[in-house]
Amino acid sequence: MFTRIGTVAVAFLLLLGLGGCGKGQGTVSGKVTLEGKALKFGSVLMVGEDQVRYSADIERDGRYRIYNVPFAYFKVALYIFDHKQHYVPKYKNDRPGKLGAKVPNQSPVDNAGWFPIPADYGDPSKSGIALTVDQADIVFDIPLKGKAAEKGP
Questions:
Q1: So what CATH class is 22-83+115-144?
Q2: How many Å apart are CA 61 and CA 59, to the nearest integer?
Q3: CA–CA separation, 148 vs 144, rounded Å?
Q4: Quick one: DSSP state of residue 59?
Q5: Residues linked to residue 143 through DSSP beta bridges, in sequence order
Q6: How many other β-carbons are positioned within 10 Å of the β-carbon of residue 36?
Q7: Are 43 and 56 in contact (CB under 8 A)?
Q8: Could you tell me the mean pLDDT of each successive run of 10 residues in the chain, 153 residues long?
Q9: Phi–psi pair at 139, nearest 5 degrees
Q10: Residue ranges per domain, the chain?
Q11: For residues 80 and 123, is the Cβ–Cβ distance under 8 A?
Q12: CB-based contacts of 93: which residues, under 8 Å, 6+ apart?
């Protein structure tokens, strides 16, 4: 009888111990700059070897934070859109129980301080930026180099 209880206890402890041996997760945060100047808008995208994507918005001071990133190798891209062409949609709800409809006159986003970045940073395979997440908290600043991309017509 004692050996049976002992076997069950050992098996339980092994299962409990193995439960914590899986891959971990971390938080990746940092600041994105171009030639030392903080980016004001956009997002940081991390693409794993399994093509699963993790992203976060860039705040007005250039900072970003991505939560629950599994321990793995990632390529990084940056998406910066021209806020002069971006609008915050306004919605109205004139039919109770239905989703609101877009209102034609939308208000532009405040774009003070926006500037473009070189186009290759928008492609994870061309950006040249990568990192391996292997701990719970990683500070990963992204100092971009080069001239700002030319604005389109």
A1: mainly beta
A2: 5
A3: 10
A4: P
A5: 33
A6: 8
A7: yes
A8: 49 43 85 91 93 92 95 94 53 47 51 78 94 96 81 44
A9: -95, 115
A10: 22-83+115-144
A11: no
A12: 99, 100
CA dihedral 119, 123, 124, 128 (to 10 degrees): -30
Question: What region, left, alpha or beta, does residue 134 occupy, with left being phi > 0 and alpha being psi -120 to 50 degrees?
Answer: alpha
Written as six digits, the tokens of 54 are 């993790």
Give Dmax over CA atoms of the chain in angstroms: 83
In whole angstroms, give the CA distance from residue 104 to residue 119: 31
**Measured between alpha carbons, how far is 43 from 81 in angstroms, rounded to an integer?**
9
DSSP tag of 33:
E
**Residue spans of alpha helices (H) in 20-76:** none
pLDDT at 84: 56
Strands (E), the chain: 25-34, 37-38, 43-48, 53-57, 63-70, 72-79, 87-88, 91-92, 101-102, 107-108, 129-133, 137-139, 142-144
Q: What is the pTM of this model?
A: 0.67
Q: In this structure, what DSSP letter does residue 98 have?
A: S
In 3-state terms, what secondary structure has residue 3? helix
